[in-house]
Specification:
Chains A, B: Pfam families: TetR_C_33. Two copies of one chain form a homodimer. Helices cover about 80% and strands about 0% of the residues of chain A. With about 200 residues, the first copy, chain A, is an all-alpha fold. The first copy, chain A, folds into two domains: about 55 residues, Arc Repressor Mutant, subunit A; about 140 residues, Orthogonal Bundle (Tetracycline Repressor, domain 2).
């Protein structure tokens, strides 16, 4: 009997994540309201909180899936350019990030829409997904800068991810004058190419 | 009599901007509620909408002041390092941006919290403030890359502003693992120094 309850709980958990994911893909975090989720899932509002501590926890679960899709998209794009140098790979990754964000704007925005200002709030699995994503960047970066200390490579990896994120974020929101998307691609190339050039010119 | 009405309107406008600015400095855009503003200003809620089309317009006015403070802080910091090279100036600006954002987090966040996804929504004076801020970056950048075409300098100016913004944004929100603020400074130096090095190594 306990096993049956457990199974129903797990089924409801997956069902709620599926429903929340569809809603977030469609319109972002504003589409996540307990009453709507309960209606879509055919359960009571209270049942949601038997499965998730709060709606943040549910959105986190969807973000986990979005991170996975983002990583797959970036790595798929890199694999379709097998003859690239490490410096070119960084640009390809930057463009793939722009492409994913532009085609999945609501879900991508939701990755960064959750309040999590203290370390305490960020679950370990989330940080681990983030580290996996950063490792994709660290590898070609370390190849471009073979003499750079590991600590600086780690810091620069985060710096480059944040840089490209900033370009994509402000670019897609047209915050700093209307830059068309192909110009955003060129902007990413300009920043990254000039950055990696410093290593190649030794 | 019309002049008197006009004067009272203008006084209320300034009073509301002052009140909204204090609230935004204190807690960001969430502190802007018509009822609270009316209470602080000692006016009816409806009177606010006689002066501003909507609350967005009021927040925009505060953002104009914040932009001015940001520009003053960046230029003040640059002026206190008169012997810097153009490449060093870019790093100094990046650090000054981090410093301003960190010390004025709610007001700085509000600069980017307003919904303005289409060109239509952004007033001309706002774009003009943004252009003035970008011009501060374009000057040393053009000096570092004297052979770069003007179009690319313009694009790279936006790219660098967005990059530093991304580093500061994700860094202060601790989105991608806890990076202490002095490491954020080093992250900004690493990205910018490696970028400008490509020009110096010719």
């Amino acid at each position: 009997m306990a096993g049956k309850v457990q199974k129903k709980r797990e089924e409801l958990r997956i069902l709620l994540i599926n429903i929340a994911e569809a809603r977030i893909i469609d319109g972002g975090i504003s589409q996540i309201r307990a009453r709507d989720l309960a209606k879509d899932a055919g359960c009571a509002v209270g049942a949601i909180y038997n499965v998730f501590g709060d709606l943040n926890e549910l959105v986190m679960a969807v973000n986990g899936r979005t991170f996975k899709r983002l990583g797959d998209h970036v790595m798929g794009t890199v694999k379709s350019h097998p003859d690239s140098t490490s410096a070119e790979t960084l640009v390809i990754m930057g463009h793939a990030y722009l492409d994913f964000a532009s085609k999945n704007a609501p879900a991508w925005r939701t990755l960064f829409d959750l309040e999590m200002s203290s370390d305490h709030d960020v679950p370990e699995w989330y940080m681990s997904e983030m580290r996996a994503l950063l490792a994709l960047i660290a590898k070609p970066l370390a190849e471009v800068f073979p003499d750079m200390e590991a600590e600086d490579v780690a810091l620069m990896t985060r710096g480059l991810f944040s840089s490209i994120h900033g370009i994509v974020l402000l670019g897609l929101e047209r915050r700093i004058s209307a830059v068309p998307e192909d110009q955003l691609k060129h902007m990413i190339s300009l920043v990254l190419n000039n950055l990696t050039k410093s290593a190649q010119k030794k």
